[in-house]
Design a protein that fits this description.
Elements lengths: L3 H4 L7 H7 L2 H13 L5 H17 L4 E5 L11 E3 L1 E3 L5 E3 L3 H5 E2 L20 E4 L6 E3 L2 E9 L9 H21 L8 E15 H5 L2 H6 L24 H16 L4 E6 L5 E6 L2 E2 H21 L2 E4 L12 E10 L12 H20 L1 H7 L3 H4 L14 E2 L2 H11 L35 E3 L4 E7 L5 H23 L4 H16 L11 H10 L7 H4 L6 H9 L5 H55 L5 H31 L5 H29 L10 H6 L2
Parallel strand pairs: 1-8, 15-16
Antiparallel strand pairs: 1-2, 3-4, 5-6, 6-8, 7-8, 9-11, 9-12, 9-13, 9-14, 10-11, 14-17, 16-17
Helix pairs in contact: 3-4, 6-15, 9-10, 11-15, 11-16, 12-15, 14-16, 20-21, 20-22, 21-22
The chain binds adenosine-5'-diphosphate (ADP) and magnesium ion.
The site of magnesium ion has 3 residues, from loops.
Length: about 700
């Protein structure tokens, strides 16, 4: 057995390989580009490309690809081989600096929301040297950004990098006020916990809904669901354990710090958590993780479902975005410090996050909105669609004491003065975390729990970084003018707590009373993608995002369109799949069972004069359900037809929400009832109990 320490990162062109393969001069120049974003000289690019190619060929690679993250939500790649014809009719392997730095995929079919006219449809890809190149399946992968020729971002990486830069700039201004002149950069880090389901591949193939849409569109609840809670952290079955071991190995080779694995709440549900990384690398790694998860599953006769809600009535899958801010000098700015001065700085950053989350609730909500995630948010399992922050009782009490100029704690006599007094000790609440909060402080980081399992983490982090950058800017603007720093700092924190404490909620987020309470507090509750997505175009959001250079106005409108289109298309495909399954599989199967039962009655009656009460009742009920399914299918078909007649995407999304989804629910309800009454052998595809307990 190979040692993990030996193969970890073996497929990555990382620091170690750079040092070993590049000249000192080239290495230093590349490092400057990585650390400070200085432009790369073409001679340096040529040298890096040559070293990358030699290393990749040694590892068996024959191709390279510019790997990017278009607005489809998955990654894209186009492979070119290194071969170049030589005069003697043979080939040599070549890869130039130009090919490394810039690519031109013929990518005119990616969604651009109208940003690219067709005549200039080819966006270009640009190397992101801050994320390491790697080898996968015989190809050298180069992480890249994807832009239009006029400079608009067509992907999720460009705005993510811009948001990190915006936060960096404003955080440094704030840190200077505290005398931190040695800090050169501030970065956000993320550790995304990834949930997923595993189902048997043969069973999966029999279900059109899973194959076409990634989730079951029909299916009655099994006799046993998750009520026993025996799956959560339960012992891992051999087949799953083998999958997980194989997955870890593949991820480790790619330099991904896969750390924790366990069973989740629902049967067949599992989680993988990596050790956190700088946000843009965490985003790249999470995309890769999702891809590798699916691929490794195939080798084990399994399918990895990343959909947010593969099974109705069973917990869905999310992704917890553990997020923090730290300096290049190694200080976590969301970690309470030990001196009065560190505490004051911590409280200011904490206040900034509180205000940012309150001011931009809608942006955070819409950053995680998809048709799939709509099934989770607001259901009785995931965080609600309402954004609130959990701080824990003790930290909340400290903030209250500051707000009210009151002494903190039962025994404390004096009220606290920021910048002068030490923050009272409070426990970091690491054991008793509130799992129902959408945005929870967990000691030295925030955990944003609303992301869907299939979401790219980029969107959530773009909006989070941008919102915090905006508030830090406001704070810096105010405090830079101050002539009495400690007093003004105290006043600012106090005022921020007073104005934004409505967003703090330490109670149970699943409780119905919270919905009412949140409404009283004026918090927004945007239930569906159709409700929240258009808010990105609100003036306050456009102003904020453009002022920090995260998006241009055109990019914002185009993104809104793309996200709404994704929503409409996903639901429309689901509706069509339901119609197909109902007409070709479910209704015929139930009808056959009803017919067979009815003929059995005829046979029985021909033998003797019996009532056949059971069969008669069954046939009557099934016949009623068949009619119900038939008419519900007809209604659903008509919504599919009507959707085509609607022009504006915003109207389409409202139609999907108000007409199509309710029509789907109606058909499903009838079919699920029929399923519970139909003999298993007649049913055309595996039922929930088989899918959930079949691995
Ligand atoms: P949980 O109980 O939610 O599983 P863990 O303590 O296991 O929480 O951590 C969850 C994630 O938080 C891990 O991916 C971890 O690497 C990440 N994490 C820890 N510290 C930070 C940080 N400073 N910034 C971002 N993520 C962090
Ligand atoms: Mg967590």
């Amino acid at each position: 057995m190979e040692k993990v320490t030996e193969y970890f990162g073996s497929m990555v062109f990382d620091e170690r390989i750079m040092k070993a393969t590049l000249s000192e001069k080239v290495y230093k120049s590349l490092k400057r580009t990585i650390d400070r974003g200085t432009p790369l000289d073409i001679s340096v690019a040529n040298a890096v490309a040559a070293a990358m190619k030699d290393w990749a060929i040694e590892k068996g690679a024959t191709h390279y690809t510019h790997w990017f993250q278009p607005m489809t939500g998955v990654t894209a790649e186009k492979h070119d081989s290194f071969i170049t014809p030589a005069p003697d009719g043979r080939v040599i392997m070549e890869f130039s600096g130009k090919e490394l730095v810039k690519g031109e995929p013929d990518a005119s079919s990616f969604p651009s929301g109208g940003l690219r006219a067709t005549f200039e449809a080819r966006g270009y890809t640009a190397w992101d040297p801050t994320s390491y190149a790697f080898i996968k399946d015989g190809t050298l992968y180069i992480p890249t950004a994807f832009c239009s020729y006029t400079g608009e971002a067509l992907d999720k990486k460009v705005p993510l990098l811009r948001s990190m830069e915006a936060l960096n700039k404003q955080a440094i201004r704030v840190l200077k006020l505290f005398g931190n002149d040695n800090v050169r950069s501030v970065r956000t880090s993320v550790g995304p916990e990834q949930e997923y389901f595993l189902v048997d591949r043969e069973m999966y193939k029999k279900r059109k809904d899973l194959v076409m849409t990634g989730r079951t569109l029909f299916g009655a609840m099994p006799p046993k669901g998750q009520e026993m809670e025996d799956h959560y952290f339960g012992s891992i079955k051999t087949r799953v354990a083998e999958y997980m071991a194989d997955l870890d190995k593949e991820l480790w080779k790619l330099g991904i710090l896969a750390k924790t694995k366990h069973n989740e709440v629902a049967p067949a549900q599992h989680e993988l958590a990596p050790i956190y990384k700088t946000t843009n690398i965490a985003a790249d790694h999470n995309q890769l993780t999702m891809e590798v998860m699916k691929k490794v599953a195939e080798r084990h006769g399994l399918v990895c479902l990343l959909h947010e809600k593969p099974f109705e009535g069973v917990n869905g899958s999310g992704k917890h975005n553990n997020w923090s801010i730290s300096t290049d000098t190694g200080v976590n700015l969301l970690s309470p410090g030990e001196t009065p001065y560190e505490n004051a700085q911590f409280l200011l950053f904490l206040a900034a996050v509180i205000k940012a989350v309150d001011d931009y609730q809608d942006l955070l909500r819409l950053s995680v909105a998809t048709a799939g995630n709509d099934h989770r948010l607001g259901a009785n399992e995931a965080p609600p669609a309402i954004i609130s922050i959990f701080l824990g009782d003790e930290l909340t009490a400290i903030l209250e004491a500051i707000e009210n100029d009151a002494p903190y704690g039962g025994t404390a006599k004096e009220k606290m003065k920021l910048g002068v007094d030490v923050l009272p000790q409070f426990s970091k609440d690491t054991t008793d975390r509130n799992r129902t909060s959408p945005f929870a402080f967990t000691g030295n980081k925030f955990e944003f729990r609303m992301l869907g399992s299939s979401n790219s983490i980029s969107c959530a982090n773009i909006h989070l970084n941008a919102a915090v950058a905006e508030v830090l800017k406001q704070f810096a603007d105010e405090l830079e003018k101050s002539t009495n720093f400690n007093d003004d700092l105290h006043a600012l924190i106090k005022r921020t707590i007073k104005e934004h404490k409505r967003i703090i909620f330490n109670g149970n987020g699943y409780d119905d009373s919270w919905i009412e309470e949140a409404e009283k507090r004026g918090l927004s509750n945007l239930k569906t993608t159709a409700d929240c997505m258009p808010k990105i175009c609100d003036k306050k959001n456009v102003d904020m995002l453009t002022s920090h250079g995260i998006f241009t106005e055109a990019e914002i409108y185009s993104r809104c369109d793309i996200m709404l289109e994704n929503y409409v298309k996903s639901v429309n495909i689901e509706a069509q799949t339901m119609v197909d399954m109902a007409r070709k599989e479910i209704i015929p199967a139930v009808a056959k069972f009803a017919a067979d039962t009815a003929s059995a009655v005829a046979v029985k009656k021909s033998v003797s004069e019996v009532a056949c009460k059971y069969e008669t009742k069954l046939v009557t009920e099934l016949t009623a359900l068949i009619d119900e399914m038939d008419s519900a299918t007809t209604v659903l078909e008509s919504t599919v037809a009507d959707l085509k007649k609607i022009d504006a995407i915003i109207d389409q999304s409202a139609f999907v929400r108000d007409k199509m989804i309710p029509a789907m629910d109606k058909l499903r309800a009838a079919a699920d009832s029929a399923e519970t009454m139909t003999a298993e052998e007649y049913y055309p595809f595996p039922a929930y109990d088989q899918l959930l307990f079949g691995v």
